[in-house]
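Changelog-adjacent note: as of this version, every example in the card shows the full chain rather than a window. The one below runs 98 residues end to end.
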Amino acid sequence: MAQFTNAKKFNKTNIKNIPEDKPIVYRLLNNSNKELYTGIAKRNRPHDRLLEHLNIKKEKISGATKIKIIQVPNLENAKKLEQRLIKKLQPKFNIKDK
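Full-length structure tokens:
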């Protein structure tokens, strides 16, 4: 089974290196490795979605300095994994009952 990548700096350079050929589940962390946000990005959209968290005020995840990702075969699998992680880790910026 695939695993999340090691944590990398959450910046434009590392976002550009994320593959876009499959959906991803991503986890945004702070300097202490505390989970701040878990989300998904559709195929061909990871770069745009993650840049929104860096640059758009209403989408910005305050304190996010690291990112972990995992590619998944399809959007259905991504949604299931995202929900399991949110339930288990209860990230600060995920809205309850989304």
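Structural remarks: Strands lie at 8-9, 24-29, 35-41, 66-71.
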